[in-house]
Amino acid sequence: MKKSAMILAAGLGLRMRPLTNTTPKPLIPVKGKTMLQRAYEHLKTIDVGPIVVNAHYLPDKIVAHVQELDPDIMISPEEVLLETAGGIKKALPLLGEGAFFTLNGDTVWTGSESLKTMESIWDPVTMDALLLLVPKENAHGYDGKGDFFLDLKGRLRRPQNGERAPYVYMGVQLTHSPLFDRAPEGPLSLNVLWNRALEKGRLFGLLHKGRWFHISTPKDLERFNKNEN
Fold it and tell me: Cβ(194)–Cβ(200) under 8 Å?
């Protein structure tokens, strides 16, 4: 079945101020392309549709940019910022039946091939979500403790007791509506739903072979524009 997709573009981008005082973070140019456009171009390498983009902060600018990219993209407006899971849950009626991708609209990464690999290994019987992960050595500009461990069957676990996990979630997942069953209304983080899936052994990961760039502040952006081709 053809996958639908959602690009998350509703955040405030507080750490990117002052650039985000007048521009949503997904619309900040990186090497001549907005981060939202980069997410869209990744999706267009696979047979995907419909595509939904959510909007909250400076929504008129998001809408105008989306219309330039693809007039068929649907907008899911958020009067109240719903966070990651809340925003996706609100958009479920637009995403249709079956599995769908979600991509953060404010990240930069290389290697669209991983989306096809995710499609090939997706199993709705055993999985609630399949997350795309990058080894910390390929997470440029990232200095955190990591997000997950990955076992031989692809199941994930969180670090515990001060562990430093080897893999970082890079803002790309393949999931379906059962992940959002019984999710409360209103603002909600995906981490809450992922933790439920973890408890049931239904949260899986795939290692990305490309690179991922942590661009959270103006200094990160300046570093990337200076050093990356």
Answer: no
> Which secondary structure element, helix H or strand E, spans residue 184, and what is its range?
none
Beta strands 149-150 and 156-157: pairing type? antiparallel
Q: State the average pLDDT for the chain.
A: 94
pLDDT at 35: 95
**Residue ranges of the chain with pLDDT lower than 50?**
none
pTM score over 0.90: yes
What structural domains does the chain harbor? 3-227 (3.90.550.10)
Cis peptide before 50 (omega within 30 of 0): yes
- Rounded CA-CA distance 176/206 in Å is 17
Report helix, strand or coil for 66: helix
Q: What is the DSSP string of 83-127?
A: HHHHHHHHHHHHH-SS-EEEEETT-EE--THHHHHHHHH--TTT-
User: Could you check whether the bond before residue 184 is cis, i.e. omega within 30 degrees of 0?
Assistant: no
Q: Cα separation of 224 and 227, whole Å?
A: 5
Nearest one of 97, 133, 152 to 211, comparing CA atoms? 133
What DSSP element (H or E) covers 13? none
Asked whether the beta carbons of 53 and 105 are under 8 A apart, the reply is yes
Which position has the token pair 């105008």? 64
3-state secondary structure of 37: helix
Cβ pair 26, 62 in contact under 8 A: yes
Q: For residue 143, what pLDDT is reported?
A: 85
* Amino acid 1: pLDDT: 66
Question: Which residue reads 């996706």 in tokens?
Answer: 88
